[in-house]
Sequence to fold (121 residues):
Amino acid sequence: MLVVLVWILTILWVLKDSTARSDSVGYQFFSALLVTVLSPVVGLPLYLAFRPLSYRWERGYWREALMNTVTICPHCEQIVDKSYNACVYCGESLKTECKECHQKYTRGYAYCPECGAPNLE
Fold:
């Protein structure tokens, strides 16, 4: 009876964990099937060895952090650090100067983030 309870709890935990780590229904189903068919003794170590290393929400934070530090050059489409004034690959200007306050800001903005003046480019 205890063995069956541990087996069922292991299957439920794997379902919960796989749902938190992946959007793929096929992956979630296969993970639960692996533990169900091979038993927790064999299936759980296999699941732990092959599961994604991070949770979905963690990957979202890293993606957002990366997008906040880099931009894409409008000329050559290379990934460039947002703090650069010009693309290191083609030399294209990445910033524009405000006509009112003379602060440099990212090209493509409709308004200056410092003073709110419209971008007249």
